[in-house]
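Researcher: Sit down with what I've pasted below and flag anything odd:
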Amino acid sequence: MSKSDIRIVTSINGFEKLKQFVNSYINKNMNDDSIKNLLEQCDLQHRSNKQCYFGWNEYRGWEEYTNNSVAAIMEGLRFLEETDYSYRFYRLGEDKEDYEEHHFDSTKEGEQDLEYPNITREFDDRYIVDILYREKANALEENKEEIEI
């Protein structure tokens, strides 16, 4: 089960509708002790007077939608679309090809022009540089041993 980073953008009204949907979903599945309200466990959440940007870092198993906590969010996004609320959903998996995107643009007043998350993939230069320095240090250590012989 791989880890994913998830980011969602909704209007303020859309976020309130999503919260209501998720709470209702959890109440209908009260027999499932493992279900959690992920909206209360976001790794980040920022708001303006128009939009809400939130998400989770390194969440395991999101892409399978097999747990009810994830299903509540994903079905909630479908509900937003059905009730004409805009949203943007992005999931970045560990592999470069593991990417998922869903969005809906409403024509309702106050539901237009949501921001798109800025997605970048970066080189981890520190990883290679650390290896190179270790190799260099090991070579110096080996040369030191040869000189002592």
